[in-house]
Amino acid sequence: MAVLLYRTIEYPKTNVAPVRCSPPLRRAILTILTSSKLFLLLFASSVRGISTLVVASYFPLYFNRAFPSNDGMYSIFNGFGVTFAAIISSSIGGTLADRWGKSNPGGLAYVPAIGIGLGLIPASITLYCPNFYTSMAAFFFQTLLSESWLGPGMAIMQREVPRDMVGLSVAVLLFFNSITSNIGPMIVSAFDSGTESVRDVIFIIIAFSYLISAVVFIFLGKLLQMPYKHRDEEPEEERRDFDSTKKLFGSLGSSENRKKNSKLISPRRSNSNSPELRKHFE
Q: Which distant-in-sequence residues (6+ apart) come within 8 Å of 104 by Cβ?
């Protein structure tokens, strides 16, 4: 399967041309921290990761306390339903971001912002609904909406880093996400009363994570919409097309051709009956 993917998948467009040397880890970290777009992506995804680990760590504990008779059913749904929702969410989010991004680059960040923001509604139903099955349905839609950031996030990463360091940059991004996400469970454990009221702390952290992440993604979308200040920052394909066009037609503007054309068509130096002029246009 790896060989098949390597032979068939085309590399996505990036805004930065690759370099010949292999990039060190330090270069990848500095690239993310010094680029405003990549730093906002790092911040938004890291804050979003806080709620992800809270859900993974404390949802089983909460549902065991709130619905002890449905403990086995929760395990089945969490193993299959939530995983299926996350796969669909990443796929749909990436597809919508690609379509929106064709007309507006900011769409790559607006899709996650909308999905994460709307995910707070089913998250509240998941934690405060007294019916187990309704709560599970809301959990499905919470995952479906809130996990929509992954596909667009990776598209932004591929768009903003050189080709020779995309994999390393993604690894750095996920490393910071993993470190930051541990903050959520630490806070919940400090305020866990041992009863189902732990859902209050869980919801506060989820709400904080979703809202802050959505706002940061909106700011990131605004930055992606801004025009590039230098031509070196333009997408590589646009630069390549521009350079090819310039190379093809650049000779028309050379000083030698300007002198020759000026001599041929200038009324001061020739007239319409000039044999040289007729020969040129023939």
A: 110, 225
pLDDT digits (tens, 9 = 90+) for 142-158: 999 998 898 899 889 88
Residue 187 CA to its chain's centroid (Å)? 28
Structure tokens belonging to residue 10: 């085309």
CA-based torsion, 124, 130, 134, 140: positive or negative: positive
pTM for this entry: 0.72
The 8-class DSSP code of residue 228 comes to P
Structural contact between residues 111 and 96, judged by C-beta atoms closer than 8 angstroms: yes
Torsion sign across C-alpha atoms 269, 274, 279, 280? positive
Which residue is listed with tokens 């880093």?
Answer: 161
Amino acid at 201: V
Q: What is the CA radius of gyration of the chain?
A: 28
Distance CA 135, CA 19 (A): 51
Placement of tokens 């996650």 in the chain:
112
Angle, alpha carbons 233-237-239 (nearest 5°)? 50
DSSP secondary structure, 8-49, as one string: HPPPPP-SS---SSPPPHHHHHHHHHH-HHHHHHHHHHHHHH
